[in-house]
Specification:
This protein is an alpha+beta fold and 154 residues long. The chain has a single domain, classed as Mannose-Binding Protein A, Chain A (Roll), CATH 3.10.100. It contains two helices and nine strands; from the N terminus they run βββββααββββ. β7 and β8 form a beta hairpin.
């Protein structure tokens, strides 16, 4: 019987002949600079969220966009503030898998979706199962969640 090496998520990494077999990322894994918050196994793409802490709190919408676009974290510089559709996917995954981003509190988060000169869209992370974007004045302060895209091979 071959010796197998597993990663922390239980995926097979190496067999007895030490050749890399494959790694199948899944929600909640740390991968490509952040925590996987959305994944599409058909297209072999996904989204990771960067760190979320005090530095992610208290931004206007333009400030949140700038913060995410200018972020350099875990060796990556292609972070961005997700649009309302992407943020709804992340928020829905968070609702059904609360440990996915356990440090996110039930608060409001800006998206990059702009409604008009004065308003943008925010998403509420709360106990409701449905995700709804709300139009708010871009000058209000809310939280932001930097994300980046990744691809993988299996």
């Amino acid at each position: 019987m071959a010796n197998l090496l597993f990663n922390n998520s239980g995926n097979i990494l190496l067999s007895g002949n030490t050749k890399l077999l494959y790694y199948v990322p899944k929600l909640g894994d740390f991968y490509s600079g952040g925590t996987i918050v959305a994944i599409d196994y058909t297209l072999k793409t996904g989204i990771v969220a960067g760190s979320y802490g005090p530095e992610s709190v208290g931004y206007t919408q333009p400030g949140a966009i700038s913060y995410c676009n200018d972020l350099s974290e875990a060796g990556y510089t292609d972070w961005y503030l997700p649009d309302s559709g992407t943020m709804c996917s992340i928020r829905t995954n968070w609702y059904y898998y609360p440990l996915l981003l356990s440090n996110i509190r039930s608060t409001t988060h800006w998206t990059s979706t702009v409604i008009n000169t004065n308003n943008g869209t925010m998403i509420q992370f709360d106990d409701a199962s449905s995700c709804v974007g709300f139009t708010r004045n871009k000058g209000l302060t809310m939280n932001c969640l930097p994300v980046r895209n990744f691809t993988f091979l299996i």
